[in-house]
Design a protein that fits this description.
The complex is a heterotrimer of chains A (about 950), B (about 250) and C (about 325). With about 950 residues, chain A is of the alpha/beta class. Helices cover about 25% and strands about 15% of the residues of chain A. In chain A, the strands form ten sheets. A seven-stranded mixed β-sheet of chain A has the order 5-4-25-24-23-6-7, sandwiched between helices. A six-stranded mixed beta barrel of chain A has the order 29-33-30-32-31-34. A four-stranded parallel β-sheet of chain A has the order 11-10-9-21, with helices on both faces. In chain A, helix 3 runs parallel beside helix 17, helix 8 runs antiparallel to helix 11 and helix 11 packs across helix 12. Chain A is globular and about 80 Å long. The two termini of chain A are about 30 Å apart. Chain B has a domain of about 140 residues: Alpha-Beta Plaits, CATH 3.30.70.20. With about 250 residues, chain B is of the alpha+beta class. Chain C is about 65% helix and about 0% strand. In chain C, helix 1 packs antiparallel against helix 2 and helix 1 packs across helix 6. The longest helix of chain C has 28 residues. Classes of the chains: A alpha/beta (about 950), B alpha+beta (about 250), C mainly alpha (about 325). Chains in contact: A-B, A-C, B-C. At the A-B interface, strand 3, helix 6, helix 7, helix 8 and helix 9 of A face helix 1, strand 2, strand 3, strand 4 and strand 5 of B. Strand 4 of chain B pairs antiparallel with strand 1 of chain C, so a sheet runs across the interface. Bound molecules: ligand MGD (2 copies), iron/sulfur cluster (SF4) (5 copies) and molybdenum atom.
């Protein structure tokens, strides 16, 4: 209820006119993708507010989203296509017309396509149109496509998808309404920015316990009921110690394990054979378990079986034990006892035991029941939903370590043991998840590439056995980034962080054109930034660049623009059509499938074009199949909007799921010419609710499985069994042990054998292991500031006022031991480089850890900032001390997924000499703004015009 | 008129929950975004793209480390985020010191405002505010401050549910609440009562209307949850004896 | 607090002017003021000049000097408004007094009293502007008003002494009175400094954040400001002067503002054979330097409670 304006008579207009028009669209100040309402007045933005009806943000906006005005009117916006005329990096460009830009690109690319399509490496960064960009790469015929997931959170995604058929990442969420105990591992902000904050607000209001495991006590951790300042890279040990405690005390949800996981499946024990460690299967391929009733091995998928969880069984020729037993035996070992791990983790054994006890107590003594009747996959009716109200969430603090895949699997294992996946109060899938395990499809490219032919499938996918790797007969990598090779077999998101290096070294082969979109590779998205810049400008003896052509689409004057040969300027997020598709990274919530669009709420005042439209145009010029009709004319002359409406990935399945066919069909249906209007009428999003009785136990809920199949999310209505024990991993291990048609080279056997453990393991992160612990005693981390998005925030006149300099946060005691005082300038040195920073002493950080805000430091002259901007003069980029390679010359990544291990770096911190105090140290030349881009005004009075208009 | 009303019809204000605020700065930028085109428009930014960027803001969020407070629980200290804006004091000397009558407190709802047309920019009111809630617009030469979104909360051009301050509308954690603190039955008054809401610097005697809810005690000790210690399972049938029971799929 | 030069100049210059008027007024009432056209004309021009220059300077720091007239309206609550009124109102008795003193043979006794009261009243209202500001402990204390009430007449008296000697119009007892005022000024300032050095305001970071009373033992340490660059609040209220620097300036203020001028005037008294101007002109100049330093410190050393939010532990 609002208040009524009183008669104050002070001349204040309490009902001023706000806007002539309010348009809904989707925010893209970050990948959370909240619904917004843009108030427009005289063609300018008066105010951006959250859309109350939107499933993601329910009306709220974060600090970035609310600063959208300054993002949109940023002086750093590119204005016109650019062609490089000076040396790479010099920033010397000429402005050219779109026609010329597109014909240059067409010439380069059509040559490649006609000769050797894999010489195009098309890599996209914070892309939200991967279903388009991936399809485009496929139609072009190159396997060398990926988005940024490989350096972002593929550990999280892959560990989840191979284990529970979904993941924390963006594919699931805690049951904020019901959970009573919430554990968060290594999260500063995450992609679910607003949903997490809304959720934490709910927990706080309800008084549920919130535990944050994080070396740094900031942001979310600041409001946690308990903060565990763990030592980086040791969460796996911590979690496995909790599992040890649960097993020791028998506090495990056996019913859940038997009903929903592969815990009872029999694992063959035949050391030295090709079958060892694989699941015992019947002739039809069904997994087997030991049935207590019949005392025989039977099809474990049958609803009637009564499986045992321990024992050693004779299956005729071989012996087998239930997966659960293997697991229990491993983690009951004293090596996993809290006492054994406490010191390394920096968490006292008593605390680990208490947390285990609390988890068990809440899961098993404080169960909740929702009076919702449901039917399981076997047709059995249950009159209520019983939940173990313990929820977990983890992100890059787990993921960005080289042991992240296993650590993440350990957390999922813990969740399964507590019976808290997709139950009331637990972790919940967001449709289209859960997906079948192991997932499909496999990555395409094994067959090689053919000139002028499509690849034949999506470049990225999921390998489930050594045979699926993308290596040729000689074992040479098929992809430029060496994803899906013995180096990183399950690199499901590709490895953007290796592309430049490999291309420059022609390892495995040289490329012709590097086509980048929305990735600031010459600065904050690269490890070893200096080295990356040198590689981007590296030349052959004949004076030609080692990467002959670089095409880049950015919307702003980022550091990377200067290193491009051809720049395709994008619009801002308020000027274009976009599609947030279920085929891509969806925005669903646990109760509904959702997708959304972005509509142009303003027309560009510059000569810029939406990248997706440009990509389709380029596709048509290259005559890529699917992008031209029979006559060779563009199939989507209306650009991206045309594609969003009319493209069908499979019959009836298109980029958007809502209002298909005649406008009443959802999920499936023919293209609907009015679809975008339908979206706009609905606030630019679609939300298809899951039936009420299908919202939990999704992996085994008949109602859900049927609904998901009808929506096209699942191929069938079979139960999805969660993989406590991972057979695909064991297959790689067996290959390393000399079995099967595809085996690793000898140098890789031991590595594969060690890391492809079918059950979670812990090992010291590689960079840590490679750095002398006495010389480099500290872990160095970055965190996302909640009010800045990567590098974008610094061009925003409002956000940069909040943070224009990043400090190095350090524990008071650690600093005192080294005579470092607050505000001192220090050198941060790792085994690969050093950088200078100003410290801020705190207590809320693990004593062995230092950290800073990510991507605040900027290169002088970039982002249309003035040369004296503190982002350069006093800010710094930790990336300068992170190496992209390990001493053994492998990439600094997780051995399974290839996830870049940003947070493994070890450093020493020393006070800088007196004459070095006062500012950062940068051995980079100043950059020059591209043509058309000039720094903004000194005095900014946004809104003054509206005031005058009101008077 | 800088004489204060003896009573105000309502005491509109904010309640800010320090136990829930994650320091996301949403209230900060949303306030800026609304108000730079609002009643006190514009909120000028100086040196917007270079060194010394310095603009007018009505709301700022600090980060502290707190020790010795019951809200810290067992740990030595805790991080606390602290939003700071005008508290719309009942006895605001920022108003009484104003020589021109530009600063005033509304008798109807208690909102403390500046009439920019009267302001001579002497800055005295900003000296008189213990909380630093007033920011001078150097470029415009007048004092500016939080208006409690007086141009939103009654605005008939906005949907009824949007008639709350911008900072409250946007706060993702719901750490900010708006209402009539003069009405003991209002939601905000009840919240203040139940959570022990406090005044900032009560010793100044300004009697802030806005209230802060201090951080609640952590649940980081064994006594904070009724979870009994885990006892080793019965090992009569071996270490995993407890696993042997009838289980069905 | 930011030591704005315009305000420092205003308080010192106008302070001397009003101080001079108050001394003149009292002498006139007592009938001790001689009449000499050039002396009285120059004296009145200088007194009013100091006042006017100070007042004009004070408008320099206004965002809207052209609206300065509005400042007279809020005398019911605002000491600044009251000061403005008093400052302007004092012109009336002062101009009348000057007219009579300079041109007419009539008595200046009554006008002298009125003028002195108004001048001292103005000094009082100026002091009260600072005295009334609760967030600033250095100002919100009982020592501020005495300081202003003494330092104004003190500076006025010393300059009057110089004028009287320049025009050879000796004013009875003015030299010893200057000495008394210098002693009183030093005492007042000394008491002020010992008070502010030994006490601090009632607030603390704990009370500023609502976490407890200052004595509660709750510690609050600022780890991140809401902005990495200085903003208005910090620039205006966060001025910091290093302790060592402040001590040095205080020493300058004490020696230049009080002790040396006192010794010089004393010397002039003790050596009636020499031209007193040789001692008194430098004494007055030095005193002015000392008082400007004192006034700079009055602002620069003052701490505002808002800085408790920015990491200050005391204010
Ligand atoms: N505001 C904002 N939001 C963003 C982004 C942004 O730049 N700004 N970026 C987006 C992107 S691309 C991504 S990938 C996500 C990332 O979102 P987050 O997962 O929140 O990523 P980071 O900020 O890198 O935070 C990692 C956290 O892990 C902690 N940590 C580091 N090592 C360990 C460890 O070993 N164990 C534990 N338990 N914790 C550890 C760090 O202290 C930090 O708090 O955020 C997205 N959302
Ligand atoms: N030290 C350290 N480094 C890290 C990380 C870390 O935690 N620590 N995190 C890593 C992770 S997870 C990620 S995801 C990367 C992120 O790093 P990047 O992928 O580089 O992400 P951004 O900095 O957001 O910038 C990408 C580019 O997109 C451009 N852009 C913005 N909006 C648009 C648009 O609308 N259209 C187009 N075409 N371009 C646009 C920006 O101008 C910018 O140049 O950083 C990685 N780097
Ligand atoms: S979290 Fe913030 S920046 Fe990201 S989409 Fe939502 S409102 Fe925009
Ligand atoms: S908080 Fe400051 S500006 Fe606001 S009413 Fe109180 S004293 Fe005045
Ligand atoms: S700055 Fe303006 S509002 Fe503040 S006291 Fe002076 S005249 Fe009044
Ligand atoms: S009430 Fe309005 S003006 Fe005040 S801080 Fe909140 S948003 Fe800003
Ligand atoms: S929006 Fe809410 S959570 Fe964020 S800083 Fe403001 S009060 Fe805190
Ligand atoms: Mo990321």
């Amino acid at each position: 209820m609002a208040f009524v304006a009183p008669h104050e008579n002070d001349g204040v207009n309490t009902s001023p006119f706000v806007s002539d028009e309010v348009k809904t669209t989707t925010c893209y100040m970050c990948a959370c993708r909240c619904g917004i309402k843009v108030h427009l007045r005289d063609g300018q933005i008066r105010y951006i507010q959250g859309n109350r009806d939107h499933p993601v943000n329910k009306g709220v906006l974060c600090g970035k989203g609310a600063a959208g005005i300054m993002q949109h009117y940023s002086p750093a916006r590119l204005r016109k296509p650019l062609k490089r005329v000076g040396e790479r990096g010099s920033g010397e460009f000429v402005e050219i017309e779109w026609d010329e830009a597109l014909s240059i690109a067409t010439t380069w690319l059509s040559n490649i396509r006609a000769t050797d399509p894999k010489k195009l490496a098309f890599f996209t960064g914070r892309d939200q149109s991967q279903s388009l960009t991936g399809w485009w790469a496929n139609q072009f015929g190159t396997p060398n496509y990926a988005a940024h997931g490989g350096f972002c959170s593929v550990n999280m995604a892959t560990a989840g998808i191979y284990t529970i058929g979904g993941s924390f990442w963006e594919f699931g969420e805690p049951d904020w309404e019901h959970t009573k105990y919430f554990m968060m591992f290594g999260v500063a902000e995450d992609h679910d920015s607003n949903p997490i904050k809304i959720g934490l607000g709910k927990l706080k209001a309800r008084g549920a316990k919130f535990v944050s495991v994080n070396p740094a006590q900031t942001g979310y951790s600041a409001i946690a009921d308990e903060w565990l300042g763990i030592r980086p890279g040791t969460d796996g040990l911590f979690v496995l110690a909790i599992i040890h405690e649960l097993l020791k005390s028998g506090s495990v949800d056996l019913d859940y394990l038997v009903k929903y996981t592969n815990a009872p499946w029999l694992v063959i024990q035949a050391p030295g054979t090709a079958e060892d460690g694989l699941i015992a299967r019947d002739p039809q391929g069904n997994p087997q378990c030991w049935d207590q009733k019949t005392k025989t091995a039977v099809n474990a998928l049958l609803p009637s079986v009564q499986p045992v969880l321990r024992g050693n069984f004779d299956l005729g020729a071989k012996r087998a034990v239930p997966a659960f037993q293997l697991m229990a035996e491993r983690y009951l070992d004293d090596a996993y006892a809290p006492e054994a791990v406490a010191e390394r983790c920096g968490i006292p054994a008593a605390t680990i035991k208490r947390i285990a006890a609390e988890l068990a107590h809440v899961a098993f003594q404080q169960t909740i029941e929702l009076p919702i009747a449901w039917t399981d996959w076997a047709g059995r009716r249950h009159d209520k939903m019983v939940g173990r109200p313990v929820a977990m969430h983890a992100m890059r603090g787990i993921s960005a370590h080289s042991n992240g895949f296993h650590t993440c699997r350990a957390i999922h294992l813990l969740q399964m043991m507590l019976g808290s996946i997709d139950v009331p109060g637990g972790f919940r899938y967001k449709p289209p998840y859960p997906r079948p395990i192991p997932p499909s499809p496999k990555p395409t490219g094994k067959a090689g590439t053919t000139p002028n032919q499509p690849l034949g499938g999506m470049p990225l996918g999921f390998v489930t056995a050594p045979e699926d790797l993308l290596i040729d007969a000689q074992g040479k990598p098929i992809r430029i980034d060496k994803a899906f090779t013995w180096d990183h077999p399950i690199a499901s998101h590709g490895m953007l962080h290796m592309v430049i290096k490999n291309a420059v070294n022609a390892d495995p082969y040289p490329i012709d054109t590097l086509f980048l979109y929305m990735a600031n590779m010459a600065w904050n998205s690269s490890m070893n930034t200096r080295g990356t810049i040198d590689m981007l400008t590296a030349k052959h003896a004949n004076g030609e660049y080692k990467i002959p052509h670089i095409i880049y689409s950015d919307a702003y004057a980022s550091e990377t623009v200067a290193y491009s040969d051809l720049v395709l300027p994008d619009t801002t997020y308020l000027e274009r059509w976009d599609c947030i598709s279920l085929l891509d990274r969806p925005i669903s919530d646990a109760d509904a499938a959702c997708d959304a669009i972005r509509q142009p709420v303003l027309q560009p005042d510059r000569d810029v074009r939406g990248f997706q439209t440009v990509l389709l145009d380029l596709g048509a010029r290259l005559k890529l199949p699917g992008m031209v009709d029979e006559d060779g004319d563009p199939k989507y002359p209306g650009g991206y909007a045309d594609y969003i409406i009319n493209h069908e990935r499979a019959p009836g399945i298109g980029p958007l799921a809502g209002w298909r066919g005649d406008g009443t069909q959802h999920g499936h249906g023919a293209p609907n010419a009015a679809q975008l209007d339908n979206y706009i009428d609905n606030g630019c999003f679609w939300r298809g609710e899951i039936p009420r009785d299908a919202r939990y136990f999704k992996m085994a809920n008949a109602g859900y499985l049927a609904w998901a199949k009808s929506m096209g999310f699942l191929p069938n209505t079979e139960q999805i069994i969660l993989h406590l024990y991972s057979e695909p991993l064991q297959k790689f291990r067996n290959a390393a042990r000399g079995h099967g048609p595809a085996q690793p080279p000898d140098k890789d056997r031991a590595r594969i054998d060690q890391y492809f453990d079918p059950m979670p393991i812990w090992y010291m992160p590689f960079d840590e292991a490679a750095s002398n612990a006495t010389e480099f005693p500290l872990h160095a981390l970055t965190q996302r500031p909640m009010h800045h998005y990567q590098s974008w925030g610094s061009q925003n006149a409002w956000l940069r006022q909040i943070t224009a300099q990043n400090r190095l946060f350090m524990h008071r005691d650690t600093a005192a031991a080294q005579n470092i005082a607050d505000d001192d300038w220090v050198w941060i040195t790792s085994r690969s480089g050093r950088v200078k920073a100003q410290v801020r002493l705190v207590e809320g950080v693990n004593k062995n850890t230092v950290w800073t805000w990510n991507a605040i430091g900027k290169r002088k002259g970039a982002w249309a900032l003035k040369p004296d901007a503190p982002e350069n003069a006093r800010g710094f980029l930790l990336n300068h001390v992170i190496s992209e390679t390990l001493p053994d010359m492998r990439s600094n990544s997780d051995p399974i997924t290839g996830q870049a291990a940003w947070f493994d770096v070890r450093v020493k911190v020393e006070r800088a000499a007196d004459h070095e105090q006062g500012e950062s140290d940068h051995d980079f030349d100043d950059m020059q703004s591209p043509p058309g881009v000039t720094t903004g005004p000194d005095v900014l009075q946004y809104g003054a015009g509206f005031r005058e208009a009101a008077e | 008129m800088t004489s204060l009303p003896t009573t105000t019809g309502k005491k509109l204000g904010l309640v800010i929950d320090l136990d829930t605020c994650v320091g996301c700065q949403a209230c900060v930028t949303n306030c800026k975004e609304w108000n730079t085109s609002g009643h006190m428009a514009p909120l000028t930014d100086l040196n917007a793209y270079g060194a010394g960027a310095d603009g007018v803001w009505f709301n700022r969020v600090h980060t502290y480390e707190v020790a010795g407070h019951e809200g810290c629980g067992a740990s030595a200290s805790r991080t606390m985020h602290f939003p700071r804006s005008c508290l719309h004091c009942e006895k605001p000397e920022c108003v009484t010191v104003c020589p021109t009558g530009a600063s005033y407190k509304r008798a109807s709802d208690g909102i403390v405002l500046v009439n920019e047309d009267l302001c001579i920019g002497c800055k005295l009111c900003s000296w008189a505010c213990p909380y630093g809630a007033r920011e001078f617009d150097v470029f415009e030469g007048v004092m500016k401050k939080c208006t409690l979104c007086v141009d939103r909360i009654y605005n008939e051009n906005l949907a009824e549910e949007d008639r709350v301050p911008a900072c409250v509308l946007t706060c993702p954690t719901s750490a900010r609440h708006f209402g009539d603190l003069g009405d003991p039955n209002s939601d905000v008054s009840k919240l203040v009562a139940s959570r022990g809401g406090v005044d900032l610097m009560p010793e100044m005697g300004y009697q802030p209307v806005n209230k802060y809810l201090p951080p609640r005690s952590r649940k980081d000790t064994a006594s904070s949850m009724p979870a009994p210690e885990l006892k080793p399972a019965d090992t009569a049938n071996g270490l995993l004896g407890w696993v042997d029971r009838l289980l069905s799929r | 607090m930011h030591p704005a030069l315009s305000v420092i100049f205003f308080t010192t210059s106008s302070g001397a002017g009003y101080g001079m008027l108050s001394v003149l007024g009292i002498y006139a009432t007592l009938g001790y003021l001689s009449r000499s056209l050039w002396f009285s004309l120059t004296t009145m021009i200088i007194a009013l000049g100091l006042i006017t220059a100070g007042l004009l300077s004070s408008t320099l720091h206004l965002g809207h000097p052209e609206r300065a007239w509005r400042a007279f309206s809020q005398w019911r609550t605002s000491w600044l408004s009251r000061e403005g009124i008093m400052a302007v109102a004092t012109y009336i008795p002062a101009l009348l007094f000057g007219m009579v003193w300079i041109f007419l043979p009539a008595s200046t006794a009554v006008l002298g009293v009125v003028m002195a009261v108004c001048a001292l009243g103005t000094l009082y209202t100026t002091a009260m502007i600072y005295r009334s500001l609760k967030p600033i402990h250095h100002w919100h204390n009982q020592h501020v008003v005495p300081c202003y009430l003494v330092l104004g007449p003190m500076t006025g008296a010393v300059w009057l002494l110089v004028l009287s000697q320049l025009f050879a119009q000796p004013i009875p007892f003015l030299s010893p009175i200057c000495l008394v005022l210098l002693a009183a000024g030093l005492t007042a300032k000394w008491l002020y400094w010992s008070f502010v050095d030994s006490t601090s305001g009632p607030s603390s970071p704990a009370s500023a954040t609502g976490l407890g009373k200052p004595e509660s033992g709750v510690q609050v340490r600022s780890i991140e400001w809401p902005h990495t660059e200085a903003n208005y609040v910090m620039k205006e209220m966060g001025f910091q002067v290093a302790r060592k620097h402040a001590q040095r300036l205080r020493t300058i203020a004490i020696w230049a503002g009080f002790l040396i001028p006192g010794v010089m005037i004393e010397t002039a008294i003790l050596q009636p054979s020499t031209n007193p101007l040789i001692w008194c002109v430098p004494a007055a100049l030095l005193m002015s330097v000392g008082i400007i330093t004192e006034r700079w410190l009055f602002f620069a050393e003052a701490k505002h409670t808002v800085m408790l939010y920015y990491g200050a532990q005391k204010a």
